[in-house]
Amino acid sequence: MRKIYWTTTVFGLLVVLGRPPALCVELGNKFVLAQLKTKGDINAWDPYPLAALDILEFLSRTTSVESVSQRRVVSLDDPLLFETPFLIYSGWGQIAWSKKERDILKKYLSGGGFLFIEDRSGEKGGSFDYSLRVQIKELFPEKTLEILPREHAVYRAYYLLRSVGGRKLTNNYLEGVEVGGRTALVYSQNDILGAWAKDLMGNYLFTCNPGGEAQRWESEKLMLNIILYSVTGTYKTDSIHTPFIEKKLMQ
Amino acid sequence: MNELFEIRWDTFAFSLILIGVLGAWLSVRAKRQWFYWLRVLAYLFLIWMALEPSIAYVPKKSERPSLTVLVDVSGSMGIGEGVTRLDKVKQFLKENRQELEKYFDLTYFQFAQASAQSDLESLLKARPYGTCTRLIESVRQVCHEKKIPGHAILLLTDGADTSFIDEQEDLSFSAPVYTVGVGDDKELSDIVVNSVRGADFAFKGRPIEITASISHHGLGRAVAPVILKEIKGKGSQTVETKTLTFSELSGENDVSFRFVPQTPGHWNYQISVPAQKGEVTSANNSVNFTLEVGREKIRVLYLCGQPSPEYAFLRHILKSDPTVELVSFVILRNPEDVVPVPEEQLSLIQFPTHEIFVTTLFDFDLLIFENFSYARFGIQRSHLDNIQRFVDKQGGGFLMIGGENSFGKGGYIGTGIESILPVQMDAAKESVENSNASIKVLEPQHPLFDIGRSLKETEDFWGTLPPLNGYHRLPEVKAGASLLAVVKESGSPAIVGWQKGRGRVVALSCLSSWQWALYLSEKGLLQSGYTRFWRQMIRWLTSTQDHKDVRIVLTNSNPVVGEKIGIRVLLDPEKFHSSSGLTVQLNILESGKTVGNPALGAVQKLEYRGAWSAPSAGPFRVQAVVDDHARKYSDERDLEVKSIDLELGNPYPNKKLLSMIAQSSGGKYANLEDFSIDSLEKKANSGSFTIQSKAQKPLWNHPALFVLLTLILAVEWGFGRWKGGI
Asked: If you measure CA to CA, which chain B residue comes closest to A86?
């Protein structure tokens, strides 16, 4: 396990250091996958630096979404945050956003930004889980994390999902916060990104428990659905789609 | 005379004393002949008379109270088979002449549009005339002219007033009015479209029911068509015809029409029944009404070539707009994309080409193409021709947003789309630039961009937005199109719009307007400016009439002369957050000149109401101007005022009005057949006519004073000649 950790960390650093200085333009209307950087140990917010590449490659290969091939790393006080409508935050341990950071995040989510939060620890009621709920209460006092029902567009944005994947299966659901009539924040405790993590040889770093490769496949599909949801919204819950989808789900 | 004069000497005596004192003083001082001062006296006398002196008196209680007999000689009094209503009144006067003269001091007046003093002989020879009846005004005129206390009025009329009296009309008079109703509904053969019931607002594409109340008199069993027409300028188009069967001699029926308005705007309709044989008039056989047709929802069809932040943001705006019904298709997978799962595990559906471009296209109000490649999804050029017709003929809106599959790069050259786009297409000159694109708005007051409360606020807003990530470089703007915004860095057209046939089209070269939303949010402004821009874009594209900052609504845009028209002025709540600080003015224009400024009253937060009656027939224009002290907003509506024979348009005796006049003035109502002079005489004897108060009588026009003046001047002249002192 220790070997795996150092291998990915070193490779990740190489990738990070070797990347172009910034995405600058070259964006047009393309999808940009951004990862939220927090203070402190890089491992706290970027445990799987290569996962984004695989996700973006899979996205381009299987869907019509045009994306920038590299991820963007931003912090909450980075001006580029507001040029990046899709953001992933994977962490563990206690979240300690300052009031200023919360204000920025609130503006980001209220203005149309989308945030996918992963609790890698997978501990229900653990320090990440607990502190996140407290932070959300601070962000939106009138809102709480709600379980996203099976009919939610995130489960049918591209793949029709009957289950929720991840490196682990802490929950068989996703949670979310609705802001301005859309789910602006999606929360998972299953470490979906962990299911994507590979070593330098292209082998998966972690086994997915308890479902194995089938569970990994569900994770990958779910990740894609989350991205598609961020760029299509509730499209797949439009009435024109519903009868076709319901029919397929019945099969 | 039956009057006891109580001469007040206040003015008269004071003047004489003044003259005497002045004369004596001047006579002594100037050593003039005494008769010289007679001339001065005459001059002063003339000045005094110019002041119109009067005397006050207390009328003596008379045995014969004063009574004015006021006879209606308007056109409707000529109604009647053989014996007209006026003939009946004449007969009544002939028969009761002696009795009336016995009990009353009589004065005779006749009236139609106005009252005029008359005499019995003239009245007995009078013929019905005039095209309108001003009943209330005529009675008031008589009250004004006959300021005799204890005076009463005997009003002989059918009550068919044509001055559009409303329920709030003041019916009190300074003398009791004894109303005598003439005429009977049964003497007429007539069909009347009384009124139209139903909402004055409808939604496009939604059925609406309008019910006309139609009464008939004296026609017996008959069948007549009832026609609903849409008035278009001077012409009309039949919407629906129904058949009405009259089974009784007289009665009232409701006829309902259910129809579907197809186009938003203000539309004039008419429900009419063609004139039937023997009808007394056809002037009351129709009623006009105005229907304001709005869009319950603006139906938007949004086709996008690939999921992107732009699609997500724009879709969310459209979805969250309660006035928009969105149907969107975004291509999630291209033919070259490989998905390692069976189709059943994907949420994808077949792109419904035929349904969209043939079956349902014309149900929409706006079509949006964003980076959409038609050729890859089996869309034929004939389908694109339908889009051309959708815009040109149906008045639909079309918006093309840039991208690799838009404009010339999307293969739209030579298709129906090319003819409706406001920009030239040239695949060789076009490119999707991944460089900064600062949008410079050229026409900030255009409805697309006009989001500030002042021009400066609007300009500041657009001037501070950050550059966008890339744009679709477009070659040229077509002649007749409006270049509304450019990419500052290159001068390439950014937003171009025009009216194409009945529809509107916009070419938008920006790829990522969503950046404005996040930028504004970062600055703590939420998305208001961004959202407004897109909402105004949708409204501008879908209608020339729907979205107005100020809107005039008329109760009837085809009124007749004298008819009161209700005018509502509605302010857009998105533009005007409150009515404080606003000046709202209503102007009535005729041939470009202001002919009236009806008063407006605020009835709700952003609604004002007023009324106006057209004094003459012809075209008028109602104009509402709202000034928020930063700029002015206005709306105009045309009015076509008709002139019809109001007398025959309303030939029915109005006993209700006559009863109300009698009741409110202290008189009494009776039908001519039931009326007796005795009842009036008893009333007079009971003192009901008499009011013991002082009255004024003009003195200046008394003949004796003129004789006196002449005498003074003659004496002065005679003595002057005789004495030779002058």
From this structure: B309
Given a cut of 70, is residue A24 above it in pLDDT? no
Does residue B123 carry a pLDDT above 50?
yes
Residues A59-98 pLDDT 10s:
999 999 999 989 999 999 998 999 999 999 999 889 989 9
Per-residue pLDDT, averaged over B48-73, amounts to 75
Residues A89, A45 contacting (CB under 8 angstroms): yes
Closest Cα partner for B652 from B191, B241, B257? B191
Best B314, B318, B326, B332 member to test A by mutation, with max A CBs in 10 Å, is B332
Q: Taking CA A172 as the corner, what is the angle to CA A169 and CA A176, rounded to the nearest 5 degrees?
A: 115
Q: What's the rounded Cα separation, in Å, for the pair B384 and B415?
A: 7
Same domain, B240 and B275: yes
Tell me: do B376 and B427 sit in the same domain: yes
Domain extent, residue B627, equals: 550-646
Cβ A82–B521 below 8 Å, yes or no?
Answer: yes
Query: Could you tell me if B371 and B285 lie in one domain?
Result: no
Q: What angle do CA B666, B672, B673 make, to 5 degrees?
A: 130
Does the structure show a pLDDT above 50 at B545?
no
Contact A28 B520 (CB under 8 A): no
A28-53: pLDDT as tens digits? 789 999 999 988 777 788 989 999 99
Instruction: Give the Cα separation of B498 and B505 in Å (integer).
Output: 6
Q: Count residue pairs from A and B with Cβ separation < 8 A.
A: 149
**Side chain identity, residue B212:** A
A82 within 8 A of A108, measured Cβ to Cβ? yes
Same domain, B469 and B323: yes
Percent of chain B with pLDDT over 90: 33
Does A229 or B62 have the greater pLDDT score? Answer: A229
Chain A nearest-CA residue for B435: A25
Q: Are A111 and B518 in contact (CB under 8 A)?
A: yes
For residues B381 and A251, the model is more confident at B381
Query: Within 10 A of B192 (CB to CB), how many other CB atoms are there?
Result: 24
Provide the strand spans (E) within B614-661. 618-627, 632-641
What is the total count of domains within chain B? 5
Taking the C-alpha atoms of residue A76 and residue A98, their distance in angstroms, rounded to an integer, is 10
Q: What CATH number does the domain containing B223 carry?
A: 2.60.40.10
Residue contact A85–B522, C-beta within 8 A:
no
What type of residue sits at position B595? Answer: V
The pTM assigned to this predicted structure is 0.61
Q: Which residues of A touch B511 (CB under 8 A)?
A: 28-29
Of the candidates A25, A62, A156, the beta carbon closest to that of B435 is on A25
End-to-end CA distance of chain A: 41
Nearest to B311 among A27, A110, A231 (CB): A231
Distance of residue A110 Cα from the nearest chain B Cα, in angstroms = 7
- The fold for domain A2-250 equals Rossmann fold (3.40.50)
Rg (CA), chain A: 17
Same domain? For B469 and B353 the reply is yes
Q: B518 touching A, CB under 8 A?
A: yes
Mean pLDDT on B517-527: 84
Of the partner residues B320, B333, B347, the one whose CB lies closest to the CB of residue A181: B320
Task: Determine whether the interchain pair B308/A66 forms a contact, defined as Cβ–Cβ distance below 8 Å.
Answer: yes
Query: What ipTM is given for this predicted complex?
Result: 0.90
Contact A112 B316 (CB under 8 A): yes
Band (pLDDT 50/70/90 cuts) for residue B238 is very high
pLDDT at B240 over 90: yes
Whether B307 and B377 share a structural domain: yes
| pLDDT, average across residues B237-253 | 85
pLDDT at B692: 45
